[in-house]
Protein backbone atom coordinates (compact mmCIF):
# COMPACT_ATOMS: atom_id res chain seq x y z
CA UNK A 1 0.00 0.00 0.00
CA UNK A 2 1.15 3.55 -0.77
CA UNK A 3 0.37 6.39 1.58
CA UNK A 4 1.01 10.08 1.72
CA UNK A 5 0.76 12.73 4.37
CA UNK A 6 -0.91 16.09 3.76
CA UNK A 7 -0.49 18.67 6.50
CA UNK A 8 -2.87 21.62 6.38
CA UNK A 9 -2.02 25.01 7.85
CA UNK A 10 -0.72 28.34 6.65
CA UNK A 11 1.25 28.60 9.89
CA UNK A 12 3.40 25.67 8.75
CA UNK A 13 4.15 27.31 5.41
CA UNK A 14 5.10 30.53 7.19
CA UNK A 15 7.50 28.65 9.47
CA UNK A 16 5.63 29.62 12.61
CA UNK A 17 5.46 25.98 13.75
CA UNK A 18 7.58 22.90 13.04
CA UNK A 19 5.79 20.08 11.22
CA UNK A 20 6.46 17.20 13.63
CA UNK A 21 3.25 15.39 12.70
CA UNK A 22 4.65 14.20 9.36
CA UNK A 23 7.71 12.73 11.05
CA UNK A 24 5.65 10.89 13.65
CA UNK A 25 3.11 9.52 11.17
CA UNK A 26 5.83 8.41 8.74
CA UNK A 27 7.53 6.36 11.43
CA UNK A 28 4.24 4.80 12.46
CA UNK A 29 3.38 3.87 8.87
CA UNK A 30 6.84 2.37 8.36
CA UNK A 31 6.26 0.10 11.35
CA UNK A 32 3.04 -1.06 9.69
CA UNK A 33 4.78 -1.80 6.41
CA UNK A 34 2.91 1.00 4.64
CA UNK A 35 5.27 2.99 2.46
CA UNK A 36 5.11 6.79 2.44
CA UNK A 37 5.73 8.07 -1.10
CA UNK A 38 4.85 11.73 -0.69
CA UNK A 39 4.54 14.46 1.94
CA UNK A 40 3.10 17.89 1.33
CA UNK A 41 1.92 21.01 3.13
CA UNK A 42 -0.91 23.22 1.96
CA UNK A 43 -2.27 26.44 3.41
CA UNK A 44 -5.80 27.02 4.65
CA UNK A 45 -7.24 27.29 1.17
CA UNK A 46 -10.01 24.87 0.10
CA UNK A 47 -9.25 25.00 -3.63
CA UNK A 48 -5.58 24.19 -3.17
CA UNK A 49 -6.47 21.49 -0.64
CA UNK A 50 -8.94 19.99 -3.12
CA UNK A 51 -6.23 19.92 -5.78
CA UNK A 52 -3.83 18.17 -3.37
CA UNK A 53 -6.44 15.51 -2.63
CA UNK A 54 -7.03 14.89 -6.33
CA UNK A 55 -3.31 14.59 -7.07
CA UNK A 56 -2.69 12.55 -3.94
CA UNK A 57 -5.21 9.85 -4.73
CA UNK A 58 -3.76 9.46 -8.22
CA UNK A 59 -0.48 8.48 -6.55
CA UNK A 60 -1.51 6.77 -3.34
CA UNK A 61 -4.04 4.50 -1.66
CA UNK A 62 -4.16 6.30 1.66
CA UNK A 63 -4.01 10.02 2.43
CA UNK A 64 -3.62 11.18 6.00
CA UNK A 65 -4.30 14.85 6.69
CA UNK A 66 -3.51 16.82 9.83
CA UNK A 67 -4.90 20.24 10.72
CA UNK A 68 -7.84 22.33 9.62
CA UNK A 69 -10.41 20.87 12.04
CA UNK A 70 -10.79 23.89 14.30
CA UNK A 71 -13.89 26.05 14.84
CA UNK A 72 -12.87 28.97 12.64
CA UNK A 73 -13.98 29.73 9.08
CA UNK A 74 -10.59 28.81 7.58
CA UNK A 75 -10.67 25.30 9.14
CA UNK A 76 -12.05 23.45 6.13
CA UNK A 77 -10.32 20.07 5.87
CA UNK A 78 -13.44 17.99 6.63
CA UNK A 79 -15.56 20.12 4.37
CA UNK A 80 -13.10 19.81 1.51
CA UNK A 81 -12.71 16.07 2.04
CA UNK A 82 -16.51 15.68 1.91
CA UNK A 83 -16.65 17.76 -1.25
CA UNK A 84 -13.93 15.69 -2.88
CA UNK A 85 -15.75 12.42 -2.13
CA UNK A 86 -19.19 13.82 -2.89
CA UNK A 87 -20.57 13.38 0.62
CA UNK A 88 -22.78 15.69 2.63
CA UNK A 89 -21.87 16.80 6.15
CA UNK A 90 -24.12 15.44 8.88
CA UNK A 91 -24.29 16.19 12.60
CA UNK A 92 -22.98 13.49 14.91
CA UNK A 93 -24.96 13.78 18.15
CA UNK A 94 -22.40 11.91 20.26
CA UNK A 95 -19.65 14.26 19.17
CA UNK A 96 -21.87 17.24 19.92
CA UNK A 97 -22.60 15.97 23.43
CA UNK A 98 -18.90 15.31 24.05
CA UNK A 99 -18.17 18.83 22.87
CA UNK A 100 -20.73 20.32 25.27
CA UNK A 101 -19.35 18.26 28.17
CA UNK A 102 -15.79 19.34 27.42
CA UNK A 103 -16.71 23.03 27.40
CA UNK A 104 -18.83 22.60 30.53
CA UNK A 105 -15.92 20.96 32.38
CA UNK A 106 -13.83 24.05 31.57
CA UNK A 107 -16.58 26.34 32.85
CA UNK A 108 -17.33 27.63 29.35
CA UNK A 109 -20.28 27.49 27.00
CA UNK A 110 -19.59 26.37 23.46
CA UNK A 111 -20.26 28.79 20.61
CA UNK A 112 -23.05 27.41 18.41
CA UNK A 113 -21.96 29.20 15.27
CA UNK A 114 -18.33 28.09 15.53
CA UNK A 115 -17.59 25.07 17.69
CA UNK A 116 -20.66 23.13 16.62
CA UNK A 117 -19.07 22.70 13.16
CA UNK A 118 -16.59 20.37 14.83
CA UNK A 119 -19.43 17.88 15.40
CA UNK A 120 -20.28 17.64 11.68
CA UNK A 121 -18.72 14.86 9.60
CA UNK A 122 -18.91 13.54 6.04
CA UNK A 123 -21.73 11.02 5.78
CA UNK A 124 -20.61 7.42 6.26
CA UNK A 125 -17.29 8.29 7.90
CA UNK A 126 -15.88 6.55 10.96
CA UNK A 127 -15.39 9.10 13.72
CA UNK A 128 -12.17 9.11 15.76
CA UNK A 129 -12.65 10.35 19.35
CA UNK A 130 -10.40 13.10 20.64
CA UNK A 131 -10.22 13.14 24.45
CA UNK A 132 -7.35 15.64 24.25
CA UNK A 133 -9.10 18.36 22.24
CA UNK A 134 -12.34 19.62 20.75
CA UNK A 135 -11.84 18.27 17.21
CA UNK A 136 -12.52 14.57 16.56
CA UNK A 137 -10.97 13.03 13.49
CA UNK A 138 -12.57 10.74 10.93
CA UNK A 139 -11.86 8.08 8.33
CA UNK A 140 -13.60 7.86 4.96
CA UNK A 141 -13.16 4.76 2.83
CA UNK A 142 -14.01 4.79 -0.86
CA UNK A 143 -13.37 1.47 -2.57
CA UNK A 144 -9.75 0.57 -1.88
CA UNK A 145 -8.85 4.16 -0.96
CA UNK A 146 -8.92 5.78 2.48
CA UNK A 147 -8.90 9.43 3.56
CA UNK A 148 -7.91 9.84 7.19
CA UNK A 149 -8.49 13.29 8.68
CA UNK A 150 -6.74 14.18 11.95
CA UNK A 151 -6.48 17.38 14.01
CA UNK A 152 -3.35 19.52 13.99
CA UNK A 153 -1.88 19.69 17.51
CA UNK A 154 0.68 16.88 18.03
CA UNK A 155 -0.66 16.19 21.54
CA UNK A 156 -3.95 15.24 19.86
CA UNK A 157 -2.56 13.56 16.75
CA UNK A 158 -0.25 11.14 18.57
CA UNK A 159 -2.79 9.42 20.86
CA UNK A 160 -5.51 9.48 18.17
CA UNK A 161 -3.24 7.77 15.68
CA UNK A 162 -1.94 5.15 18.10
CA UNK A 163 -5.29 4.32 19.70
CA UNK A 164 -7.66 4.52 16.73
CA UNK A 165 -5.93 4.86 13.37
CA UNK A 166 -3.15 2.31 13.73
CA UNK A 167 -5.46 -0.63 14.51
CA UNK A 168 -7.56 0.21 11.45
CA UNK A 169 -4.56 0.56 9.15
CA UNK A 170 -3.29 -2.91 10.02
CA UNK A 171 -5.81 -4.36 7.58
CA UNK A 172 -4.05 -2.45 4.77
CA UNK A 173 -0.66 -3.83 5.72
CA UNK A 174 0.64 -7.19 4.54
CA UNK A 175 4.29 -6.59 5.44
CA UNK A 176 6.30 -5.08 8.26
CA UNK A 177 9.19 -2.63 7.96
CA UNK A 178 11.65 -2.55 10.88
CA UNK A 179 14.80 -0.51 11.36
CA UNK A 180 17.83 -0.74 13.61
CA UNK A 181 20.10 2.27 14.08
CA UNK A 182 23.77 2.14 15.05
CA UNK A 183 25.07 5.43 16.44
CA UNK A 184 28.70 6.24 15.69
CA UNK A 185 31.03 8.94 16.99
CA UNK A 186 34.52 9.98 15.99
CA UNK A 187 34.11 9.08 12.31
CA UNK A 188 32.74 11.41 9.64
CA UNK A 189 29.96 10.38 7.28
CA UNK A 190 32.33 9.94 4.33
CA UNK A 191 34.74 7.67 6.17
CA UNK A 192 31.85 5.75 7.72
CA UNK A 193 30.26 5.17 4.30
CA UNK A 194 33.62 4.05 2.87
CA UNK A 195 34.19 1.57 5.68
CA UNK A 196 30.76 0.04 5.11
CA UNK A 197 30.70 0.53 1.34
CA UNK A 198 30.48 -3.17 0.42
CA UNK A 199 27.54 -3.74 2.74
CA UNK A 200 25.78 -0.55 1.64
CA UNK A 201 26.18 -1.35 -2.08
CA UNK A 202 25.26 -5.01 -1.91
CA UNK A 203 22.37 -4.92 0.58
CA UNK A 204 18.85 -5.02 -0.79
CA UNK A 205 16.80 -6.40 2.09
CA UNK A 206 17.82 -5.21 4.55
CA UNK A 207 19.18 -1.95 3.19
CA UNK A 208 21.89 0.03 4.97
CA UNK A 209 21.95 3.83 4.79
CA UNK A 210 24.42 6.31 6.36
CA UNK A 211 23.23 9.63 7.81
CA UNK A 212 25.15 12.57 9.25
CA UNK A 213 23.78 14.31 12.32
CA UNK A 214 25.10 17.46 13.95
CA UNK A 215 26.85 15.61 16.77
CA UNK A 216 27.24 12.04 15.45
CA UNK A 217 26.67 9.80 12.45
CA UNK A 218 24.33 6.86 12.12
CA UNK A 219 23.86 3.71 10.07
CA UNK A 220 20.25 2.66 9.66
CA UNK A 221 19.51 -0.97 8.79
CA UNK A 222 15.99 -1.43 7.38
CA UNK A 223 14.32 -4.74 6.60
CA UNK A 224 10.93 -5.65 5.14
CA UNK A 225 9.20 -8.97 5.87
CA UNK A 226 5.78 -10.49 6.52
CA UNK A 227 6.29 -10.34 10.30
CA UNK A 228 8.27 -8.28 12.78
CA UNK A 229 10.34 -11.27 13.91
CA UNK A 230 11.26 -12.14 10.33
CA UNK A 231 12.33 -8.54 9.70
CA UNK A 232 14.48 -8.55 12.83
CA UNK A 233 16.05 -11.86 11.77
CA UNK A 234 17.08 -10.24 8.49
CA UNK A 235 18.66 -7.34 10.36
CA UNK A 236 20.75 -9.39 12.82
CA UNK A 237 23.53 -10.71 10.50
CA UNK A 238 24.03 -7.28 8.88
CA UNK A 239 24.12 -5.64 12.29
CA UNK A 240 26.73 -8.15 13.42
CA UNK A 241 28.94 -7.42 10.39
CA UNK A 242 28.73 -3.67 10.94
CA UNK A 243 29.62 -4.02 14.62
CA UNK A 244 32.75 -5.96 13.67
CA UNK A 245 33.75 -3.23 11.22
CA UNK A 246 33.18 -0.24 13.51
CA UNK A 247 33.86 -1.72 16.93
CA UNK A 248 34.23 0.84 19.69
CA UNK A 249 33.24 3.64 17.33
CA UNK A 250 29.64 2.52 17.89
CA UNK A 251 28.53 4.08 21.14
CA UNK A 252 24.86 3.09 21.11
CA UNK A 253 21.81 1.88 19.25
CA UNK A 254 18.48 3.35 18.13
CA UNK A 255 17.56 6.30 20.40
CA UNK A 256 20.57 6.04 22.71
CA UNK A 257 22.29 9.28 23.74
CA UNK A 258 25.98 9.58 24.54
CA UNK A 259 25.31 10.97 28.01
CA UNK A 260 23.09 8.00 28.85
CA UNK A 261 25.64 5.46 27.62
CA UNK A 262 28.50 7.17 29.45
CA UNK A 263 26.44 7.84 32.58
CA UNK A 264 25.59 4.16 32.94
CA UNK A 265 29.24 3.19 32.47
CA UNK A 266 30.42 5.66 35.10
CA UNK A 267 27.85 4.49 37.64
CA UNK A 268 28.41 0.79 36.92
CA UNK A 269 32.19 1.17 37.24
CA UNK A 270 31.90 3.65 40.13
CA UNK A 271 34.17 6.20 38.44
CA UNK A 272 33.75 9.62 39.99
CA UNK A 273 33.98 12.57 37.59
CA UNK A 274 34.19 16.36 37.55
CA UNK A 275 34.36 18.89 34.72
CA UNK A 276 36.10 22.19 34.09
CA UNK A 277 34.74 24.05 31.09
CA UNK A 278 35.71 27.21 29.31
CA UNK A 279 34.41 27.32 25.71
CA UNK A 280 31.64 24.76 26.35
CA UNK A 281 30.29 26.84 29.23
CA UNK A 282 28.77 24.04 31.33
CA UNK A 283 27.34 21.92 28.52
CA UNK A 284 29.32 18.84 29.59
CA UNK A 285 27.88 19.08 33.10
CA UNK A 286 24.39 19.65 31.67
CA UNK A 287 24.69 16.54 29.50
CA UNK A 288 25.91 14.37 32.35
CA UNK A 289 23.10 15.36 34.70
CA UNK A 290 20.57 14.27 32.07
CA UNK A 291 21.32 10.72 33.21
CA UNK A 292 19.25 9.69 36.25
CA UNK A 293 21.49 8.49 39.06
CA UNK A 294 24.57 10.39 37.90
CA UNK A 295 24.72 12.08 41.32
CA UNK A 296 26.41 8.92 42.58
CA UNK A 297 29.54 9.78 40.60
CA UNK A 298 29.34 13.32 39.22
CA UNK A 299 30.78 15.56 41.92
CA UNK A 300 31.23 19.00 40.40
CA UNK A 301 31.10 21.07 37.25
CA UNK A 302 33.06 24.32 37.10
CA UNK A 303 32.69 26.94 34.36
CA UNK A 304 36.12 28.56 34.45
CA UNK A 305 35.69 31.00 31.62
CA UNK A 306 38.18 33.68 32.60
CA UNK A 307 41.91 33.31 33.17
CA UNK A 308 41.38 34.34 36.78
CA UNK A 309 38.89 31.49 37.27
CA UNK A 310 41.29 29.01 35.71
CA UNK A 311 44.00 30.11 38.13
CA UNK A 312 41.92 30.55 41.29
CA UNK A 313 39.63 27.53 40.94
CA UNK A 314 41.82 25.02 39.12
CA UNK A 315 45.34 26.10 39.93
CA UNK A 316 46.36 26.77 36.32
CA UNK A 317 49.71 28.56 36.48
CA UNK A 318 49.88 32.19 35.43
CA UNK A 319 53.10 31.41 33.62
CA UNK A 320 51.27 28.78 31.55
CA UNK A 321 48.58 31.25 30.52
CA UNK A 322 51.14 33.98 29.77
CA UNK A 323 53.34 31.70 27.69
CA UNK A 324 50.82 29.46 25.91
CA UNK A 325 47.50 31.35 26.32
CA UNK A 326 44.19 30.02 27.60
CA UNK A 327 43.56 28.06 24.42
CA UNK A 328 46.46 25.62 24.46
CA UNK A 329 47.53 22.06 25.11
CA UNK A 330 49.25 23.11 28.31
CA UNK A 331 46.25 24.97 29.75
CA UNK A 332 43.84 22.11 28.95
CA UNK A 333 46.19 19.70 30.71
CA UNK A 334 46.40 21.82 33.88
CA UNK A 335 42.64 22.39 33.85
CA UNK A 336 41.86 18.65 33.74
CA UNK A 337 44.38 17.90 36.45
CA UNK A 338 43.18 20.80 38.57
CA UNK A 339 39.49 19.86 38.56
CA UNK A 340 40.27 16.18 39.30
CA UNK A 341 42.55 17.18 42.17
CA UNK A 342 40.35 19.81 43.79
CA UNK A 343 37.15 17.77 43.38
CA UNK A 344 38.91 14.55 44.43
CA UNK A 345 37.49 12.56 41.49
CA UNK A 346 38.82 9.67 39.41
CA UNK A 347 38.20 11.62 36.21
CA UNK A 348 38.65 15.26 35.32
CA UNK A 349 37.53 16.51 31.91
CA UNK A 350 38.34 20.01 30.65
CA UNK A 351 37.66 22.11 27.56
CA UNK A 352 39.18 25.33 26.29
CA UNK A 353 38.83 26.79 22.82
CA UNK A 354 37.63 29.46 20.43
CA UNK A 355 33.97 28.97 19.61
CA UNK A 356 33.69 32.16 17.59
CA UNK A 357 32.44 33.93 15.67
CA UNK A 358 35.29 36.31 16.55
CA UNK A 359 38.49 35.92 18.51
CA UNK A 360 40.39 33.68 16.10
CA UNK A 361 43.81 34.21 14.55
CA UNK A 362 45.89 32.48 11.85
CA UNK A 363 47.63 30.42 14.51
CA UNK A 364 44.47 29.76 16.50
CA UNK A 365 41.44 29.87 14.22
CA UNK A 366 37.80 29.80 15.23
CA UNK A 367 36.75 26.23 15.98
CA UNK A 368 40.03 25.29 17.69
CA UNK A 369 39.36 23.33 20.89
CA UNK A 370 41.66 21.52 23.30
CA UNK A 371 40.19 18.83 25.52
CA UNK A 372 42.08 17.57 28.55
CA UNK A 373 41.30 14.26 30.23
CA UNK A 374 42.80 13.18 33.54
CA UNK A 375 42.00 9.63 34.68
CA UNK A 376 43.46 8.42 37.98
CA UNK A 377 46.40 10.79 37.71
CA UNK A 378 47.23 10.15 34.04
CA UNK A 379 46.50 13.05 31.71
CA UNK A 380 46.06 13.26 27.96
CA UNK A 381 45.14 16.20 25.73
CA UNK A 382 43.57 16.21 22.28
CA UNK A 383 43.37 19.03 19.76
CA UNK A 384 40.26 19.45 17.60
CA UNK A 385 39.35 21.82 14.78
CA UNK A 386 35.58 22.02 14.33
CA UNK A 387 33.69 23.68 11.46
CA UNK A 388 30.43 25.51 11.98
CA UNK A 389 29.02 28.33 14.05
CA UNK A 390 29.46 28.97 17.77
CA UNK A 391 26.69 26.58 18.86
CA UNK A 392 27.93 23.80 16.58
CA UNK A 393 31.52 24.08 17.78
CA UNK A 394 30.42 23.85 21.40
CA UNK A 395 28.09 20.88 20.77
CA UNK A 396 30.76 18.97 18.88
CA UNK A 397 33.33 19.63 21.57
CA UNK A 398 30.98 18.22 24.20
CA UNK A 399 30.28 15.14 22.08
CA UNK A 400 34.02 14.56 21.57
CA UNK A 401 34.71 14.95 25.28
CA UNK A 402 32.02 12.52 26.41
CA UNK A 403 32.91 9.99 23.73
CA UNK A 404 36.59 10.18 24.63
CA UNK A 405 35.81 9.36 28.25
CA UNK A 406 33.64 6.44 27.08
CA UNK A 407 36.47 5.03 24.99
CA UNK A 408 39.04 5.42 27.75
CA UNK A 409 37.03 3.62 30.42
CA UNK A 410 35.65 0.83 28.20
CA UNK A 411 36.81 -2.55 29.55
CA UNK A 412 38.69 -0.93 32.41
From TrEMBL:
SMART domains to which the protein is assigned, alphabetical: MoCF_biosynth (SM00852)
Top-rank taxon, per record: Bacteria
SUPFAM superfamilies linked to this entry: CinA-like, Molybdenum cofactor biosynthesis proteins
Alphabetized CDD domains for the sequence: cinA (cd00885)
Domain annotation MoaB/Mog: ranges: 4-171
InterPro entries reported for this sequence: CinA, CinA-like_C, CinA_C, CinA_KH, Competence-induced_CinA, MoaB/Mog-like_dom_sf, MoaB/Mog_dom
Family indicated by similarity: Belongs to the CinA family.
Protein name: Putative competence-damage inducible protein
